[in-house]
Please model this.
Amino acid sequence: MILNLLKSILVTATIYHATPEQTDSTPFITASGMYIDADCPQCHRWIAVSRDLEELGFVFGTRVKITGTGYLDGIWTVQDRMNARWSNRIDFLVNEDITGGKWEHIKIELLSY
Model:
């Protein structure tokens, strides 16, 4: 399958866990309405994006290629939205055993809707 590369930008990337402290009162339901596997959230390979990125086409269901993080590099899908206080940022949904993680100037490439 050939994917059409539409655009890419540089962002700050962090991680988050499916917990009420880091999300809301429904931590296993994303903003797009998708249900998170509580046993392996990271298996979905889903990210949350800051709201300003949605205006650039990084909307729910969009597949993206991410480079610059090392072990989290690869293809991910936008399925969640970050708090309005953030801009130019993505959050990787990861398992709770993964802690810490912030990267600057990460390349995120819009692949498809």
User: Anything to note?
Assistant: Confidence is low (pLDDT under 50) at residues 1-5. The helical segments are 51-54.
